[in-house]
Amino acid sequence: MRLNISVLCVIVLFSYAAAYDPLDPNGNITIKWDVVSWTADGYVAAVTMSNFQMYRHIMNPGWTLGWSWAKKEVIWSMVGSQTTEQGDCSKFKGNVPHCCKKTPTVVDFLPGVPYNQQFSNCCKGGVVAAWGQDPSSAVSAFQISVGQAGTSNKTVKLPKNFTLLAPGPGYTCGPAKIVPSTTFLTADKRRKTQALMTWNVTCTYSQFLARKNPSCCVSLSSFYNETITPCPSCACGCQNNKKNCVKGNSKFLDMVGLHTPKRDNEPLLQCTHHMCPIRVHWHVKTNYKDYWRVKLAVTNFNYRLNYSLWTLAVQHPNLNNVTQVFSFDYKPLLPYQSINDTGMFYGMKYFNDLLMEAGPSGNVQSEVLLQKNKETFTFNQGWAFPRRVYFNGEECMMPSPDSYPYLPNSSPKNVLNFQTFIISFLLFLALW
Description:
This protein is mainly beta.
């Protein structure tokens, strides 16, 4: 009995830990349903998806939202989005619903749809920015008219079993919960109205559920050591990938349609020892009297995808003294308020916010100037290198700490002493 309880506790704790991000502990996607009017057989609701994650956005090809109806509801019409399947509506005469499936699947409209099919914050192809990067673009919404449902607060049954692909797996959604009704302000800002009924669904992300292997890796170098610490071998998994990767000079790259993303964003990788779509390189470039400078480079090895609205989150103890960032935007993140050791780098709009697919243009880079805190500043023990690195909200594989570039006046001294000892010992034997 004790063993069963212990196993259950471990499973519960592990499941919670998997969906917990230490650099963004409050990050989630909240889906809010506001019933704005009753109809003859149901209701009209405005559905708003808000991405409250600081550095994890929903990238192309966008979100896919699904749920199960509690009764025999149908969707009469939608504005700002559509379901992927209509289902069997053969029992309806005259007016045919938009969707009759028990488990509808909804996707956002692409940009450029007719004006009468648009809704506020819709029609972006399902791409939603991270809250920390651009709060105004971190929202997606649509309107839905539901039939064969309740027509009052007491008879409406909440949808259940919500699923969210954004665009791939990784999100787990909780049950819908009734919350205080949302209030709205009229255009002249002189009158408040409120929803007739509101419920929320909260979805959290787990990298463990999204994929077996990391999707990025980190390499390191410094001005004080000629050795470059590469990404770990097979950092993103090598099983079967080596057979499917493409060499940089391959004629296969000239095929038409090769660079078109797939719905599940399956990558087509350039052959490397690490087999990662993204590599982040951290180079300690210069050491001034009161400052030190780092060069950051992000390289795309995926021939099938341009990374738009990319983000790079870094945890480093000296990020509380960032003086200047060149050619990237920067925002400090304060996951624990009192500790300022985490920051987010992202591309400047219309300049380098699009990381091109693998090839000559498949990289972005910047430099960061940091002020020294002379009481704590040191290059020893890997202090100059980041503790954690996230690309697009995915934690990257770091090299082993014992492979970090070392200072010339530390480790080499022991090597030289050992070499001197060997030479002296051989001379002693020769003379003997």
